Structure to design on (1059 residues):
């Protein structure tokens, strides 16, 4: 990366082709069931589908559309096609339809299209339900959905729970295939970095796939030169903090879903909701998305004044000028006006909600936790939050933040907070606490001793060959966050003389009001700067290892052209908009371009919700 | 596992990989890219359209030709249908299966083929050693889908104790089996496995989890009663006990109150009709409900707040907070006063708020308490700055004036004069203070 002269970051590659490939394959698959048919779509797949094809494209192939849900389908078609995620639950739903048809002597054709891939467990369910030969199965290899010019999502929010909580490696193959696809279209990547167990496994499986495929990509000019893989559990702290950059706040407040958001009546100041795509194409949004919230108002009001001035030019125009104005400028101005008023409405609504929630006080508590002072006061703040039955998700998030920054709660606090939580939000959250403990987000201090006892007992049974594996498994269980030590080593809490300048931020810490530099982004910065992990040994040890760095004949400085300044940052388990903003900032500073590849966009609320136990 | 895949699938897979490895020079890819760019440049124009904010979406109700009348299936339809459905898959199967049986893949190759989504028979892995080599290969291959596939095979071909024993030293595979059993809902086998592993707490939690799926409250209560004997940790056993007791109480209260509300005799239920049933609500919500509808009841009744407080050992702070919110909502200011008043042994009364008076003020204000009520508690806020802030915000003039007087801050007091009404008692008070020669102003 350039450290001297500031260069402009290269433009991101065109990811539109990914959408095109996905759409073409889907149409091809639908054609494999010729004739009239009804299509059942998994609700989770609707928004992604929305982004690559519109209804009319599929109307050529499909009669009626239904969503896969827990009630019998009214379809009368003779051919049913199911577009689904590979889930046991969904297989049972389909099997029920097939079996009901069989009972009533009805004969139809059934086809299941799995996205992004089929699981053996699904086929097993079909076999058990006695419908195996009655349905045909296909795979729609829709691994990568470009959400924006620099964000690609796998749209697999369940990755987080499946891997980090349940320890299931089912999505690693999907990640490896996604990397293979990206590498074949925009690579070959010459430098690969990573940290985390899942990152390492994904990398190894991807290498395997590459070795096998005939095409080695030699001689092609790459568009992307570097890739960095990171597990979400390397840094939970960042994901747990309240977001204060605009895009993060919009996500925390309204939930951005697949790159679009539903602005309700409180934002639109009308009686209807409006669905808005939030991306680089939105001329207003693209200028404020990465800004600290405090700078957004100023920008919006400046824009409004400019707009007013442009409208005002109408006065004193003659007919001809007026005609020109209407035909050439008015439409653009109207569009801008519309976007402007939406974002102003969103800001107002965010302000209203945040004032109600004691946001200022909460941010103060978060900063205290990050820096490690006033722990008692912070604990009582959380306690009061729980007692007042303020949002259950927020209470949980604050407790997790306390636990991770402090390497676990002291047993007395753990018990009392847990008891009060169960009393305020319901006893069944006992299960949520158990999950949070297993994943390491909310733990009790001094659990180390009991664990060692179990470990030694089990290791007596362990054969030499398996010893490595089992120690690994226990390491991940016993893993302490070591946040305080890491924070010190990497100077995550910036030392500022006087006021931190949020308008002209000096570093990535601006995404948290200058109070904290996101750990995940700091690691990326450090490794890219050093071209590897040299000098970061202590940090790696505190993060529990599993780091790697490979350079396949990477060209030296300058020789690689623009591709060497393009980095794919892969977040396994989700990435937040704050992290995206921080790395975009870093890219601008260093003249490089980050592309974000994530299993899903995440946030503290999504992470907490993934830990709750739902009804089956 | 060893079922056939359709020829079409094979075709697609082979062609898919070719498609993904086009070189840049390749005609099709560059054409594709070019057209994409063309479309992109067009989109800017299209996007300016006024309608672009409301796109047609998949996420609504079933779209499509909804109004089409369902047509009766014709005879010919029925004919062609059965024909295709029953024979087509059969015709394709043998060829694919033949291919698989003809090769004796090594464990490693078997795993690799499965990772690529190819069908592979596992039946020839019959000795325990072969099975475990296969499992270890699957784990080493990092693909959870394949690990689970192997586990499904092992589960079918090994006695459970043998399988459990082998998995005890294979943690990654063990996680996969546990997750698989959770997903398929094989609860009995899951519990056996957890018991075998001595994970007693998980056994208990896993059984307790089932209550989420019980709709009927009576059945749920019975189920929770049974949960009390499960091997929870000492800490959790009291939570389970509380859960049971809470639901038991709620059932009693609900039956009673539904009856009361229907009869229309009770004023409180007539004036403030219940919005929802109290069943399955958290304890604090139940306490709020009880403070709202049953505040004055004697401790002996199950629905009284004091009874709940005692039974569930609700901390003072939590109790006051909840009771305050409930009484303020009813605008029962006398109750609020009584709640915050304590008597010492000499019979003197004193105001005390375990939650801090700034919170009290906040709760009262949210329930539109009159200034007279509000200012009494604003005055009790200890921190001077907070007190001034609150008093100014809620126009408790008396408190502001008295505080400035105590601070001997003449300038602030003078400045405040313009915030009160002309000719009001407050203005008079300020004037008389300012002209009081006894006070030693600091400025």
């Amino acid at each position: 990366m350039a450290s001297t002269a500031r260069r402009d970051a290269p433009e991101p590659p065109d990811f539109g082709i990914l959408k095109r490939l996905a759409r073409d394959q889907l149409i091809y698959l639908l054609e494999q069931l010729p004739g009239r048919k009804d299509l059942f779509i998994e609700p989770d797949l609707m928004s992604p589908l929305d982004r690559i094809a519109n209804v009319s494209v599929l109307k050529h192939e499909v009669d009626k559309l239904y969503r896969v849900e827990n009630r019998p389908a009214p379809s009368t078609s003779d051919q049913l096609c199911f577009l689904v995620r590979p889930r046991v639950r969904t297989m049972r739903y389909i099997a029920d339809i097939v079996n009901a048809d069989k009972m009533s002597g009805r004969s139809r054709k059934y086809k299941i299209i799995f996205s992004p891939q089929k699981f053996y467990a699904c086929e097993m369910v079909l076999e058990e339900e006695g419908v195996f030969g009655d349905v045909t199965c296909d795979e729609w290899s829709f691994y990568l959905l470009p959400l924006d010019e620099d964000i690609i999502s796998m749209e697999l929010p369940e990755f987080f729970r499946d891997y980090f909580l349940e320890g299931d490696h089912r999505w690693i193959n999907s990640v490896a295939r996604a990397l293979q696809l990206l590498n074949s279209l925009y690579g070959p990547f010459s430098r690969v970095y990573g940290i985390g167990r899942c990152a390492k496994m994904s990398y190894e499986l991807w290498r395997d796939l590459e070795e096998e495929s005939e095409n080695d990509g030699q001689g092609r000019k790459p568009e992307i030169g570097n890739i960095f893989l990171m597990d979400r559990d390397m840094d939970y702290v960042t994901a747990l903090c309240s977001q204060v950059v605009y895009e993060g706040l919009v996500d925390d407040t309204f939930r951005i879903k697949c790159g679009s958001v539903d602005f309700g009546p409180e934002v639109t100041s009308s009686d209807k909701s409006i669905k808005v795509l939030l991306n680089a194409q939105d001329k207003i949004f693209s200028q404020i998305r990465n800004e600290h919230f405090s700078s957004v108002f100023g920008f919006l009001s400046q824009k409004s004044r400019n707009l007013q001035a442009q409208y005002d030019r109408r006065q004193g125009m003659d007919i001809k000028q007026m005609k020109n104005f209407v035909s050439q400028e008015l439409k653009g101005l109207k569009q801008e006006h519309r976007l402007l008023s939406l974002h102003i409405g969103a800001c107002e609504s965010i302000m209203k909600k945040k004032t109600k929630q004691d946001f200022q006080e909460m941010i103060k508590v978060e900063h205290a936790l990050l820096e490690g002072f006033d722990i008692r006061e912070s604990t009582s703040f959380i306690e009061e939050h729980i007692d007042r039955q303020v949002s259950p998700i927020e209470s949980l998030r604050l407790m997790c933040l306390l636990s991770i920054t402090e390497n676990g709660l002291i047993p007395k606090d753990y018990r009392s907070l847990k008891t009060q939580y169960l009393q305020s939000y319901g006893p069944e959250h006992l299960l949520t606490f158990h999950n949070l403990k297993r994943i390491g987000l909310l733990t009790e201090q001094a659990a180390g001793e009991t664990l060692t006892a179990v470990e030694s007992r089990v290791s007596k049974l362990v054969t030499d060959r398996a010893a490595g594996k089992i120690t690994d498994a226990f390491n991940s269980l016993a893993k302490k966050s070591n946040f305080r030590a890491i924070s010190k080593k990497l100077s995550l809490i910036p030392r500022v003389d006087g006021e931190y300048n949020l308008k002209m931020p000096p570093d990535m810490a601006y995404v948290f009001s200058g109070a904290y530099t996101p750990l995940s982004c700091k690691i990326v910065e450090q490794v890219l700067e050093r071209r590897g992990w040299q000098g970061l040994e202590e940090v790696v040890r505190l993060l529990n290892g599993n780091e790697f760095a490979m350079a396949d004949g990477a060209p030296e400085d300058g020789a690689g052209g623009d591709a060497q300044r393009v980095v794919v940052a892969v977040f396994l388990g989700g990435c937040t908009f704050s992290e995206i903003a921080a790395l975009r900032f870093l890219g601008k500073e260093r003249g490089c371009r980050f592309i974000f590849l994530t299993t899903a966009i995440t946030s503290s609320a999504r992470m907490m919700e993934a830990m709750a136990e739902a009804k089956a | 596992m060893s079922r056939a895949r359709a020829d079409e699938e094979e075709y697609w897979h082979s062609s898919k990989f070719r498609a993904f490895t086009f070189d840049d020079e390749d005609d099709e890819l560059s054409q594709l890219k070019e057209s994409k760019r063309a479309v992109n440049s067009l989109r800017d124009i299209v996007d300016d359209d006024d309608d672009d904010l409301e796109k047609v979406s998949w996420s609504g109700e079933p779209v499509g030709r909804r109004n089409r009348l369902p047509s009766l299936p014709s005879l010919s339809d029925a004919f062609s249908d059965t024909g295709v459905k029953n024979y087509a898959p059969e015709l394709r199967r043998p060829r694919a299966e033949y291919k698989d049986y003809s090769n004796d893949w090594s464990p490693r190759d078997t795993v690799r083929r499965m990772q690529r989504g190819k069908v592979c028979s596992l039946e020839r892995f019959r000795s325990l050693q072969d099975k475990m080599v296969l499992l270890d290969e699957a784990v080493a291959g990092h693909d959870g889908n394949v690990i689970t596939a192997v586990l499904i095979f092992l589960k079918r071909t090994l006695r459970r104790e043998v399988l459990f024993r082998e998995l005890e030293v294979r943690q990654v595979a063990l996680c996969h089996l546990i997750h698989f059993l959770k997903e398929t809902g094989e609860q009995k086998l899951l519990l056996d496995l957890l018991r075998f592993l001595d994970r007693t707490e998980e056994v208990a939690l896993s059984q307790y989890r089932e209550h989420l799926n019980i709709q009927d409250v009576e059945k749920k209560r019975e189920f929770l009663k049974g949960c009390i004997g499960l091997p929870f940790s000492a800490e959790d056993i009291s939570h389970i006990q509380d859960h049971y007791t809470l639901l038991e109480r709620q059932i009693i209260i609900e039956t009673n109150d539904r009856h009361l509300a229907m009869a229309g005799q009770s004023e409180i239920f007539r004036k403030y009709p219940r919005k929802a049933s109290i069943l399955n609500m958290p304890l604090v919500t139940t306490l709020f409900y009880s403070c709202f509808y049953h505040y004055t009841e004697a401790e002996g009744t199950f629905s009284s707040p004091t009874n709940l407080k005692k039974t569930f050992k609700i901390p003072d702070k939590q109790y006051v907070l909840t009771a305050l919110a409930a009484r303020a909502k009813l605008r029962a200011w006398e109750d609020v006063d009584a709640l915050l008043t304590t008597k010492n042994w000499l019979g003197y009364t004193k105001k005390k708020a375990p939650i801090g008076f700034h919170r009290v003020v906040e709760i009262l204000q949210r329930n539109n308490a009159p200034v007279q009520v509000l200012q009494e508690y604003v005055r009790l806020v200890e921190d001077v700055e907070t007190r001034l802030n609150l008093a100014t915000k809620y126009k408790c003039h008396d408190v502001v004036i008295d505080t400035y007087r105590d601070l001997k801050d003449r300038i602030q007091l003078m400045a405040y004069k313009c915030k009160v009404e002309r000719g009001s008692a407050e203005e008079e008070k300020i004037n008389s203070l300012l002209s009081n020669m006894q006070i030693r102003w600091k400025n």
Summary: Confidence is low (pLDDT under 50) at residues 1-102 of chain B. The two ends of chain B are 90 Å apart (CA to CA). The beta strands of chain B are 341-343, 349-351.
